[in-house]
Specification:
By secondary structure, the chain is an alpha/beta fold. Helix content is 49%, strand content 12%. It has an eight-stranded mixed β-sheet, sandwiched between helices. The radius of gyration is 22 Å and the shape is globular. The structure holds zinc ion. Zinc ion binds next to helix 4.
């Protein structure tokens, strides 16, 4: 009798511990600390720092029981690939581990994404999922998604067995350094099944938008090309993106752990789907996308007291247009303007090549000129400066 009681007690204790086995902020931080350490010299693809990072990731994955393979693809570059489970069908988790090189800690881009991948795997390995989990830490993303393109051309597990590819990039900081927390979720438009899972788990701080708003800018793109349903999670750009200020002390590990737990739940839901998600060649864009963009513009207007006049003009105009204009183009342009404002190094490019030309086409010469004026502030190249000056003169 007594023994029976004891074992019942032990079973319930074990169950309690299992449900507590959530992703911890501390563990995430340990990985990011190691990967963004100056000794890794920014983990540039092909460098000793990147090689050391690959070894570290392989060790971590082995430790949680994942069977690791190194996939070399030339130039001293390698993807770290592993699988937990024996089922042929699997969910793939992936993040690039290469960074921007010496002087660039590349903490939020993308030591955090790698940490998220490892810790979701650790969390889910105990859940007796009906499918396997495959994790890939991609090398050489920064110079053109080279690791993920190589992997999707030479997958170690057949891509047709993938339920979905779940990709992480640029995690753990506030979008545009705003006071509000935002997690972007892209890719749901290519799968009814994934969209349903995301919808069920959605929270008010999630911005579920179509991938076309940012374009093929991370490792999800090669999977999309191969028609593997995918989701892309990112906290998106900030003022230190691709800069020397992308340091670990600016990463919010408590929020990162919270979101990682939510993503782990989403991955688990996908793993337990009755039918394998299908890739839609005709995307179905999420409802509420336009309203979400409008809200984002409003938050920025409110918080950025120093918002340059060009942006005030554009944002005011976007908000009006979004009410009646349902085109993808308008939403892409509004997103480009947000990204231009978020990261100074993109400002000139986004404003000169997307936003300005849009307003020229729309025959809003005043806003086009303001956009080129703003671009001029961020241009150092003399010939680009001349071009912009010329455009502004023509418009005024
Ligand atoms: Zn990145």
């Amino acid at each position: 009798m007594k023994r029976n009681k004891l074992s019942r007690f032990l079973v319930s204790l074990l169950l309690a511990l299992l449900t507590l086995s959530a992703v911890s902020a501390d563990r995430l931080k340990v990985h990011v600390t190691w990967l963004s350490d100056p000794a890794r010299a920014g983990r540039q693809a092909g460098s000793p720092g990147a090689a050391a990072a690959a070894e570290y990731i392989a060790r971590q994955l082995k430790e949680i029981g994942c069977d690791v393979q190194m996939q070399d693809f030339g130039g001293r570059r390698r993807n770290v690939v592993c699988r937990i489970g024996t089922a042929a069908r699997y969910v793939l988790l992936g993040a690039h581990y290469d960074g921007q090189g010496p002087g660039m800690p590349s903490a939020s881009d993308n030591a955090t994404g790698v940490a998220v991948t490892i810790e979701i795997l650790r969390d889910l390995r105990l859940k007796e999922l009906p499918v396997s989990l495959v994790a890939v830490a991609f090398d050489d993303e920064e110079q053109g998604l080279n690791g993920s393109r190589y992997y999707s051309d030479h997958p170690l597990y057949p891509l047709e067995n993938a339920e979905a590819a779940i990709i992480f990039d640029t995690m753990g900081r506030q979008f545009m350094d705003l006071s509000t927390w935002t997690m972007f979720v892209l890719g749901a438009e290519y799968s009814k099944e994934l969209a349903a899972v995301v919808q069920r788990r959605s929270r008010s701080d999630m911005l579920i938008v179509g991938t076309d708003l940012i374009g093929p800018r991370s490792d999800f793109a090669p999977f999309g090309v191969k028609h593997v349903p995918y989701l892309f999670f990112s906290h998106a750009t900030h003022k230190d993106y691709h800069g020397s200020g992308d340091t670990i002390d600016r990463v919010n590990f408590v929020k990162l752990a919270e979101d990682t737990n939510l993503i782990a739940q989403i991955v688990e839901d996908i793993a337990r789907l009755q039918t394998q998600p299908k890739y839609l060649t005709q995307p179905v864009y999420p409802a509420g996308e336009s309203a979400a963009l409008e809200r984002q513009l409003e938050v920025v207007e409110k918080e950025r007291k120093d918002l340059p006049q060009a942006y005030r003009l554009m944002f005011g105009d976007f908000k009006l247009r979004l009410k009646s204009d349902e085109t993808r183009e308008l939403r892409r342009i509004a997103t480009s303007a947000l990204l231009a404002l978020a990261t100074p190094q993109f400002s000139s490019f986004m404003l000169s090549f997307y936003v300005g030309p849009y307003y020229e086409r729309e025959n809003r010469r005043d806003i086009a000129a303001a956009a080129y004026d703003e671009a001029l502030k961020w241009t150092t190249d003399p010939s680009e400066k001349r071009d912009l000056d010329e455009k502004i003169r023509m418009l005024k």
